[in-house]
Amino acid sequence: MKEQSPHNEPHFTWNDAFYDEKSLEESFRFDDTGREISSREDFHLVTIRPGFSIYTSRLEPRKTPSWDLQVAFAPLCFSFCLGGKIGVHWQRGKLADSITLERGANSFFWLDQVTGHSQHLSPETAYFVAILLQPEILADYLGEEMEHIPESFARILNKKTAFANFTMTPKMILTAAQAFEHSDCGCAARLHLESCGLSLLAQQIEQLAKTELRPARPLCSSDEERIRAAADILVRNMANPPGISSLARQVGVNESKLKRGFRQMFDSTVIQFLSAQRMIRARVLLSQGMDVSETAFSVGYNSVSHFILCYRKTFGVTPGFHKHNDRLF
């Protein structure tokens, strides 16, 4: 046991726990003093093969507003954030930086030999799906393509930085949401998480290839901010979203750049992005007890039957099923 860190904050020291599933789960659920940070209901982990695991995690700001890290050993991590906002300040030797993990973020990081501090930046509960990979496992999956990974990923593997933030595609968002859709235990739950983990890894590797082959005219940082602002406007106003021309005017770009920006950043059209966000929001509302008709109208569908059709196409079941059997959020 170690003494509590200053200000009575949870403190985690990670070493070789990632080779063993039970130790890995305990390292996430308990801090160095043995204090429980995440309950079994809030954290589920499955090892797909040695060195390759997936977990779902729910982090409550009121329960653990902040925590310290001291990592001696860690695997590579692909993280998919469905909600919340967490700030991370990290340091490795002379390297140091800060990064924000928030809704819609697809992050790639390697916390090996890193110290740092994390804290919730909003009162919203944070929902994460994460894939943990040993570097040799990633190299095994990528094969010869490992030599052509994007510079942003290569910098992490070469330990020139620890984090890289990208944006989840609509397909990633839906697959990550489905990862939460499992029973608490048993073979079926493990198989479900395994299938989601393999699907997310496949999508991540596909994104690696697309990142490498992006067009010669990438978006500048100011245009990326405008595209993210446009995405936020759509999410906030999904019940009555602006048209593409109006949305472009609001964020200060032309329609062509708006459409190209969504393709580059989200690998989708504006409409596909909005549809995926509507489905995720519908899942949340149904889990909170809202009836199907009210949910449909709340996320922007004028026709309940069309909403049910889209929902079934996305999740494979009707909204009514999730209203009565859902424990996602």
CATH superfamily membership of the largest domain: Jelly Rolls
- Please give the radius of gyration in angstroms: 20 Å
- Unreliable runs, pLDDT <50, ≥5 residues? 1-7
Strand order of the largest sheet: 2-3-10-5-8-11
Number of E-type strands = 11
Give the SSE map:
Layout: E1 11-14, H1 21-29, E2 43-49, E3 52-59, E4 66-71, E5 76-83, E6 85-92, E7 95-102, E8 105-110, E9 114-120, E10 126-133, H2 135-142, H3 151-157, E11 163-167, H4 170-179, H5 187-212, H6 221-236, H7 244-251, H8 255-266, H9 270-287, H10 292-298, H11 304-315, H12 319-325
Helix pairs in contact: 4-5, 4-9, 6-7, 6-8, 7-8, 9-12
Explain what this protein looks like in three dimensions.
The chain has two domains: 6-212, Jelly Rolls (Sandwich); 221-325, Homeodomain-like (Arc Repressor Mutant, subunit A, Orthogonal Bundle). Helix content is 43%, strand content 23%. It contains twelve helices and eleven strands. It has helices spanning 21-29, 135-142, 151-157, 170-179, 187-212, 221-236, 244-251, 255-266, 270-287, 292-298, 304-315, 319-325, and strands at 11-14, 43-49, 52-59, 66-71, 76-83, 85-92, 95-102, 105-110, 114-120, 126-133, 163-167. The strands form two sheets. A six-stranded antiparallel beta sheet has the order 2-3-10-5-8-11, with helices on both faces. The chain has a five-stranded mixed beta sheet with strand order 1-4-9-6-7, with no helix packed on it. The protein is globular and about 55 Å long.
